[in-house]
Amino acid sequence: MLITLWAKAEERHYNPPFLVDKKAEEMIPQIDYDFSKFSRSKFSQAGVCIRASLIDKEVQAFLSAHPDAVVIQLGAGLDARYERLGSPVVTHWYELDLPEVIELRKKFFKENDKRTFIPLSLFDYQWIETIKAHQKPILIIVEGVLMYFERTEVKAFFESLCQKCEKATLLFDMLAYSLVGHAKNHDSLGSMDKKQRPEFRWSELYSHTLEAWNPKIHIEKEYFMSDFNKGRYPFIFRMLYKIPYFYRRFNQRVIKVKIVENED
After folding, report:
1. Cα 16 to chain center, whole Å?
2. Which of 40, 113, 160, 161 lies 20 to 30 Å from 257 when distance is taken between CA atoms?
3. Parts of the chain with a pLDDT under 70
4. Residues in a beta bridge with 219
């Protein structure tokens, strides 16, 4: 949560930036934490901002097509997407995270008649009934979250969405396949104490694998993040990404999934 907050605030030093996050810049000085430990994490700092900017653009496109949408961000942490997008006027915008995170979130963000915080696990599926009750187009955002769960848990999450939602659009990121089980090699997570460091547990080599999980799952779009790095990734990695084997296995992705009604 703090790594991604730092990364977005740090983006102010780049011209042009991948994104502008004034809220993140405001929050950093108010949090008693030694963010300097991430100062060498240039690769993941750029990656966090590429990921967020790609998702932001997809959210904007969805809201342009569906201005009456209901949006929910699962595992919202301290992300300020709502502010970055100019507090969009939608049917409702929800942000979900564990109760202790929501308590922290309330110190920096305010709810309103169009914005609600939900203190739940994303696996506590009562939130699905909440968003369905509006009977409006649904957009679900899951950023920087699913990689920390086992494949069985992620598959169960998608199965539950398919069972409980007739239709929805889902934006999420897929960890680089070769990083599963190797959080210690990550340039920012690797700086954390071993006992506190979360492990990367899930990715798929091919995103379309998800379509075999349930016939309602359709991969509509897939972004390989190295394609958008604008020279910010280390030179050696930019060269390695020219090799198909490396490109496929060491690339993080942003994926747009549509959950659609079965034709039969």
Report:
1. 22
2. 113
3. 184-197, 262-264
4. 257
